[in-house]
Amino acid sequence: MKITCNEMGEWTGNPACFINPPCTNVVTTTKGVLWRLCDGYAPGIGHPSKGRIEVNFDGTWGTVCDDGDFLDVDGNIESSPWSVESLNVACRTFGFSKSTGVNRRGAYFGEGVGPILMDDVICTGSETLLTDCSHSRDHIATGECSHSEDQGIECI
């Protein structure tokens, strides 16, 4: 477990920060994307295997929307909660390869701040990282998702 306290994923040496960080388990992927879990115990208190999912693209931390779109029988796009496959890939992203993901949607771990960087996440279950799953980033500014829809995960 790597407990971190600054935006770069490094422990600052502050003992209070180490004991009680708001975000934990910062993971840097081989593709250079940073992930973290936030507020898993309570607001301002991190947990290594549960929390609000946050991602860092190009130096900016943001949240992931809890929408998981699919096509209905008529070919129309419908929104739904994340699938079991997507939840399990989320756990793999944080290093829990044998874990089952429990859906903690609807800002269960509190609302994040900053931009919402991923939406409409759909995984088949074979992916290693959430960024390997189908997702959108191009319509986030349209307001289709709000922080009341921040996706969380609990890896058990």
Essential attributes:
globular, mainly beta, eight-stranded mixed β-sheet, 156 residues, 2 helices, two-stranded antiparallel sheet, disordered N terminus, single chain
Task: Describe the protein.
Strands 1, 2, 3, 4, 7, 8, 9 and 10 form an eight-stranded mixed β-sheet that branches. Strands 5-6 form a two-stranded antiparallel ribbon. It has helices at residues 15-19, 84-93; strands spanning 23-28, 34-38, 50-57, 60-64, 68-71, 77-80, 101-104, 116-122, 134-136, 152-155. It has two helices and ten strands. Strand 1 and strand 2 form a beta hairpin. It is mainly β and 156 residues long.
Topology, element by element:
Elements: H1 15-19, E1 23-28, E2 34-38, E3 50-57, E4 60-64, E5 68-71, E6 77-80, H2 84-93, E7 101-104, E8 116-122, E9 134-136, E10 152-155
Parallel strand pairs: 4-8
Antiparallel strand pairs: 1-2, 2-3, 3-4, 3-10, 5-6, 7-10, 8-9
Radius of gyration: 15 Å
Shape: globular
Q: What are the low-pLDDT stretches, counting only 5+ consecutive residues below 50?
A: 1-5, 7-11, 13-20
Calculate the mean pLDDT score and round it: 78
Major sheet: 8 strands, mixed
Number of strands: 10
Helix-strand category:
mainly beta
Helix content: under 10%
Q: What percentage of amino acids are in beta strands? A: 25-35%
- Our measurement of the CA-to-CA distance between the termini, rounded to an integer number of angstroms, reads 15 Å
If helices are DSSP runs of H or I spanning 4 or more residues, what is the number of helices?
Answer: 2
Note the run of SSEs as H and E.
HEEEEEEHEEEE
